Amino acid sequence: MRKVYFDSAATTQLRSGVISKMQEALDTYGNPSSTHSFGRTAKTAIESARKTIAKGMNAQPAEIIFTSGGTEADNMILRCAVDDIGVRTIITSKIEHHAVLHTAQALAEKGRAALWYVDLDDHGNPDMAHLEALLQKDDSKKLVSLMHVNNEIGNMIDMAAIAGKVKEHKALFHSDAVQSIGHYEWDVQAVPVDFLAAAAHKFHGPKGVGFAYIRKNSGMGCLISGGSQERGHRAGTESFHNIVGLEEAFANAYEHLETERNYVTGLKKYFIERLRTEIPQARFNGHSGDLERSTYTLVNVRLPVDKQKALMLLFHLDMKGIACSKGSACQSGSDAGSHVLSEILAPEDLEKPSLRFSFSKYNTKEEVEYAVGVLKDFIAD
Hints:
CATH architecture of the largest domain: 3-Layer(aba) Sandwich
Oligomer: single chain
Number of strands: 12
């Protein structure tokens, strides 16, 4: 059976060079906290990775903290902002990743911080006037948490405009950049964001490793206690081979960024064109059909299929060897609908199936043709 992978927003294929680097690292078994030569070898490689990432983001090495992934980084930032920095109000949106939403909700339910949601327009964009009103609402110390690239519909917020607004009101700014880092250039000096979260497996690196960017002198403490690793921000022996894999994936992503971005943008454009030709009743959710206002890595399409037939759609695609998603991978195993689409679609549109197709350098136009053909046949059957 033909196999076509269009779910790179969930996780990506490892680059061969990343695998090689990780295999080499597995032979370096010293604990990075040990002072003997075995430990120093591992520690040197970890600090090299930290410098590589910091340089790529115009940050300082001490501002890069390795974590187990984006979810841990988001949790660390939100929880420690409340516990250590004195944040008393979190401002976010209802279409954030659950790593942010559920963490903020838990803090609010325990009375540790107020939780306010910024209004969204029909496409899922934050209302800047409402954001400013929330920032002015009282004198509490505030943290704004808005993701750069939405993981389901691909919308991109104006980071510079929001960062400027947040700083104007002396608040803090956090962004879940899991769908962004490795796909877009970052300069944390040009865009004064205080905190970011990233995950290696979204840009052809290993699962189980990511990092938090924490601006220097923020006052941030630690989420996990028990050791002085990661500048005291995260206790526990570092996952050395994963960090080496993260560095290699990060360096490769930015070395080949322009070429690969142009290629993947072409695939997305072709996918949109073929869908509009073959299934003209299809509609794109959020701004995912707009090449200027959404990420080049994914589309979220709503298909003209009734509710009963829609129950078989993902199964049918899987039987045809096509991997895609009805929402984020974190919720696709649940019967619950997309919390993102529930916020921006009318009830009648929620009755129709929506699918997320996400692309990488490993996809081809022939795969696009195949997927569109399978969709067309399913709808016509």
